[in-house]
Amino acid sequence: MREQKISETSETQASVRVELGDRSYDIEIAGGLLHKAGEMIVARLGKRRCAILSDENVAALHLEKLHNSLDAAGLSHGTIVLPPGEATKNFTPLAKACEELLQMEIERGDLIIAFGGGVIGDFSGFAASILRRGMSFVQIPTTLLSQVDSSVGGKTGINTAQGKNLVGCFHQPSLVLIDSDVLETLPARELRAGYAEVVKYGLIDDPVFFSWLEEYGPRILAGDAQARTHAIAVSCRAKARIVAQDERESGVRALLNLGHTFGHALEAWAGYDGSLLHGEAISIGMIMAFELSQKLGYCEDGAADRVEKHFKSVGLPTRIADIADENGPNADELLKTMAQDKKVKNGKLVFIMVHNIGESFIDDEVPMDALATYLQSQCAAKN
Ligand code: GLY
């Protein structure tokens, strides 16, 4: 366990290095950082022509600030604004954006800037990986979820009819710029959903961070700037450490999928229409991982209740019954979707299970009958 006191919460800025040899990069975190984005890009990556990919919501709120900052640093730029939402992460919008970028005469040495949440980050990173056989890109994430998870680590991709993120590749950004102030314009529900990914780092391997979140989580959501910066920094340090050890998820990186096999199945059932956000799905998924771990005798009793109490205290859903009426998912449907998940290895479902809060492990031996029984109990439960 790392030596960190619960009271150490005062961080106004942080710099985190993702160590990946000649592809190493920095994550810079601070309030108001957007105004310095241009000079930070020039300082690290030199003067480049930039192509910004963003969505309509982020562009309306923050694009001018980014443009001003690039102008001040003498960086020329073009911008493509995409429709918001998961539907953008698809072949057709990707092909269109790539052609528009080529129309702009983008060159291999130019820079793509992903300016938005997880959809824009994954989409732009994938576009950068295939354009001109691979271009550099900078992540400027604008949601809590993308700031603490998806902008770091180089997972890029789009969705297909068969599932989420099934077409994509690993392509690391050259720089990640996180302005914690942009969270002030994020809808409260999106902020809460991103918070579930913050809690995940405590649950994986940092019980002290989880205890800190039990105390400070409500302040993070209410807008306490220092608590927010600290939570983002701890999350990014954890992610950077794990990615440096296992960039392509052949081992320890899989721990970041705690709650995701359940969560992805719930998202597929809900239909990616905004009715169930990713963070909400993995909030429920993480409780399921804890409960199933308890049922299988891996985990101390009481851990699932403690995690659930925390998620409930910040207003996150924790049960299928919280998101479904009598037409909710059935266990067979969920199992079928789980079998299509990327976490399937040699035909076996790989789960992240837990011994306790902060003690997760990879398990490909979860008995299917116990899983099916547990899912049936959850699908049948009513509020
Ligand atoms: N979001 C999980 C990962 O980046 O590995």
What does it look like?
- A hairpin with a 2-residue loop joins strand 12 (351-356) and strand 13 (359-363).
- This protein folds into 2 domains: 13-185, Rossmann fold (3-Layer(aba) Sandwich), CATH 3.40.50; 258-383, Dehydroquinate synthase-like - alpha domain (Dehydroquinate synthase-like, alpha domain), CATH 1.20.1090.
- The protein has helices at residues 37-45, 56-72, 91-103, 118-130, 144-150, 188-205, 207-222, 225-245, 260-270, 278-295, 303-313, 331-340, 368-380; strands at residues 13-18, 25-30, 50-55, 77-82, 111-116, 136-141, 155-160, 163-170, 175-179, 344-345, 348-349, 351-356, 359-363.
- Helix 5 packs parallel to helix 6.
- It has 13 helices and 13 strands.
- With 383 residues, it is of the alpha/beta class.
- The strands form 4 sheets. Strands 1-2-9-6-5-3-4 form a 7-stranded mixed sheet, with helices on both faces.
- The model has no long low-confidence stretch (mean pLDDT 94).
- Glycine (GLY) binds at residues 149, 153, 155, 253, 256.
